[in-house]
Amino acid sequence: MNPSKPILITIDGPAGAGKTTVSRALAEAVGYRYVDTGALYRAVALAASREGVGSEDDAGLDRVCRGLDLAFNRTETGTRLFLSGEDVTGFIRTPEMSMMASAVSARPVVRRFLLSVQKELGRSKEAVFEGRDMGTVIFPEAEAKFFLDASPRVRARRRYRETPSSASVSLKDVEQDIIRRDKNDSTRAIAPLKPAQDAVIIDSSGMSVDEVVGKMLAHIVAVTSRP
């Protein structure tokens, strides 16, 4: 299914809601690029952690951002995120990086840096952007906006399955991290996690990926058929 005109699609929502799987499937269905913006914040968190820079050290974060070389490259195993030539896709998916990413994403210096990166990626439209403030802050002009949610328990199970086997964490630990991150993301002063006023809200707790994508496609058809 190819939209009748080029549009921007945003999918926001909390950790573990299934945004990545759904965003990839939707991008494939409409023939658009998939952009995981959360991975960009995780990459900043990873780089800062490696350099011993804390999440509240704005001067240090500014230095880290100015030295970043980020790239999304397609490989045989899908789209991977590279940091200064190193594939860091696996390293940024740990619970520690999730919490660090949540913290650094609230810092103006980091948001300013990644805002320009994201705006450039969306300039030509025909892309599905996954994140937490894509429809509210980064692309308020996007033609199709979605907010994907699920219960904390369901999201914890999903995230736990994605956790590397080398990480010594329990399902309970993951659920507590998700609840804590929900609070951090939704109460922060800058770009708090919330649905855009014109977003389609979907609770995926009891839905399959195909069902979620199908609901999104129906909305996209309606949007692109308007005069």
Task: Walk me through this protein's architecture.
The chain is α/β, with parallel strands linked by helices and 227 residues long. It has one domain: P-loop containing nucleotide triphosphate hydrolases (Rossmann fold). The protein is built from nine helices and eight strands. The chain has helices at 19-30, 37-50, 58-66, 95-104, 108-121, 134-138, 152-162, 171-187, 209-224; strands at 8-12, 33-36, 70-75, 78-83, 86-87, 127-131, 144-149, 200-203. The strands form two sheets. It has a five-stranded parallel β-sheet. Helix 1 crosses helix 9 and helix 3 runs parallel beside helix 5 (108-121).
Number of domains: 1
Element-level helix/strand string: EHEHHEEEHHEHEHHEH
CATH class: Alpha Beta
Measured distance between first and last alpha carbons:
19 Å
Count of helical segments?
9
User: What do we call the CATH topology?
Assistant: Rossmann fold
User: What is Rg?
Assistant: 17 Å
Summarize the structure.
This protein has 227 residues and is α/β, with parallel strands linked by helices. The protein contains nine helices and eight strands. The chain has a single domain, classed as P-loop containing nucleotide triphosphate hydrolases (Rossmann fold).
